[in-house]
Fold this sequence. Notes:
The protein has one domain. It is an all-alpha fold and 68 residues long. It has two helices and no strands.
Amino acid sequence: MKKFFNRIGTYFSESYNELVKKTSWPTAKELSNSAVVVLTASLVIALIVFVIDMGFENLMTFIYDKVF
């Protein structure tokens, strides 16, 4: 049982060391640039989905008006 807890302690210790010492974190400028790219891409995709949805809505309205 002691071996189990030692392994857990080693795991957390190594995870912490990797997170603090080996990970390269982005600078504030890189982070804000990435956020702008993600926001812009999300808005463009949302706009494309909106246009496609409106097109299908108009198409279905046209078809239903002709059929019924």
